[in-house]
Amino acid sequence: MQLLKITAAIGLLSSVVAAASPPVVSTMETALPTLFNGPLYQNFISSVNGTVTGTPRPDGGAVTLPWRYYASTTGATKNTIVMVNGHTESFIRYRETIYDFNQNGFNVLTYDHRGQGFATRLGCTPDYTSDVDSFANYITDMDAIVQAGKAGPASGHNLLLWAHSMGGGIGAGYLENYPTTFKAAVLSSPMLSLNTDPYPAIAALPLDMIVELFGGPCVLAPGQQGPPSNAIYGTNATSFANAVTTSSFTRFSVLNQPYWEFPSTMIGGVDARWISQSMLTIQQIAAAGSKASIPIQMHQSGNDAFVTPDGQNLYCNGLSVLGIPVVKGAKQCNLIKHPTSRHEVHNEVDAIRTGYMQQVITFLRQYSV
């Protein structure tokens, strides 16, 4: 009888907590074109802006990283999501996701990575070449942003992490090196192992390193094209037909519009140094997931053309051979699979994105103050 009373009390408490939480809201595809240059735009230009100096370039040149802080639209809160975007991206493409986080009661602190967006380029010619001097610098840059936020608009705040793709790889590495900064983290299609098609994964890195050895760090990696691609930055149906980022034409076309207002933010093919730095480092990060101690919600895209599930599975769940743990995974990691989603779950069709946003917001609210 006592056990039944305890169980009933727990159930009642859960119901009260659920009832106290406001419903999760997210933008619908049909409304996005109208909202994009209205409420979403007004929210986007409402930010507090700043810059930080990242780790210097190898030639000693300064690296300037721009950041933006967006306050919750539902009232003052100390819950701030640090949003870490992906490869070749800029925060200008995240107008909808920022708006949805703000609408659900979170502040957002976001920024552009070295070598892309509005951040300093790293010295390759042409400067739209996707390059990084050291993948580890992405992680130290991220900490510079976090510290700027803590010293500024996010002072005294409860920090939560949301990171996508390359940002997810950076975020995963950050959690291993700075385990107490965040209360909880969402890693969305994190780049913890690369899709190296048409080259076998075992051959891709040695081939790239040979190309880098003879061609220099800025030479394009095998199979890469130079100028920015319409399959990444386009806005029309022809571009979308070649796109593999999302199956939502509405989101693909609308969210890419700001790039054409700021064409200098577009990034082209990746160079050999970016490939070698990324592959070597994310292998190490994926194998060291046990260093991450906070609750993590990881989202895996089943139709992902950019990253493979191998590194994600290793980081989150570890690896066992004949039932014997060989590599330990993150201590509190829940892997959620989206079988039909392309790489950008947060930019997918409503049938995928709405449920995804429900899972993300509900999870982050559990660790809010």
From TrEMBL:
SUPFAM superfamilies associated with the record: alpha/beta-Hydrolases (SSF53474)
Protein's UniProt keywords contain Signal: yes
Pfam families to which the protein is assigned, alphabetical: Hydrolase_4
Domain of life: Eukaryota
Signal peptide range: 1-19
UniProt entry keywords in alphabetical sequence: Signal
Every Serine aminopeptidase S33 domain range: 77-350
Claim: Nucleus is one of the keywords in the record: no
Stretches of the chain forming a coiled coil according to its record: none
Listed InterPro entries: AB_hydrolase_fold, Hydrolase_4, MAG_DAG_Lipase
Protein name as annotated: Serine aminopeptidase S33 domain-containing protein
Originating species: Geranomyces variabilis
